[in-house]
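Entry 12.
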Amino acid sequence: MSDKPFADQTVVVTGGGTGIGRATALAFAELGASTVVITGRRADRLAEVAALHPAVVPVTADVADAAGADAVAGAVESRGGTLDVLVHNAGVFRFTPLDHLAPDTVREVMDINLVGPVLLTGRLLPLLRSPGGSIVLVSSRAGHNPTPGGSVYAASKAAVHSLTRSWAAELAPRGVRVNAVAPGFVRTEAYAANGLSPEQVEGLFEHAKGDIPLGRVGEVDDVTPWITRLADPASDLVTGQVITLDGGMDLT
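Predicted 3D structure (tokens):
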């Protein structure tokens, strides 16, 4: 395999300001991509990532609406007009217990986790290299496991699993591959974003370890190589797959 498999390619990574998205964007840049467009709603976080590599191009946009999708498309069009890899990483978790449902929270989760990927993919499809393009979605093991108190999030990720397989079948005649990764517990800012203190996060991870056969929660660097590998042209026979990265939790 080439040490620069994405040489001269253009990549889009949504949610590229933090966590898995940040690491993924930088990984594509290090693997040769000439342009890595990162999106998010916080301009300061995007700027921090862009400062780390000249190939990274920040676009402040909410890809859950048409204007945000247009902004991303405009960034791709201004840099040659051909998109090689699209990574749907933007996502949000919110607690949604049935006895305390907030309609706005339900809509937020579904808009970001489901509507955004659909709208952005539709907008960017005319620009996606065909044949040879690749889409990778960042899902969750919650998409195929019960999540009490977080059923809306789990439903949104189950929908992402479905999109992966349906799009893989729909786009195969164009030579475009579609795959997903489904991490379990991973150390990111998502837990703090839901109001958990550092102590509560560590307590959650310590408790989770008892259910993980490999005995540890994931790190961002456990996920990123799978995203780049699935997008790698050398993986040109792989499509419609959802790769679970959970330390074996599905075995218990």
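Annotation: The mean pLDDT is 95. The CA atoms of residues 17 and 46 lie 5 Å apart.
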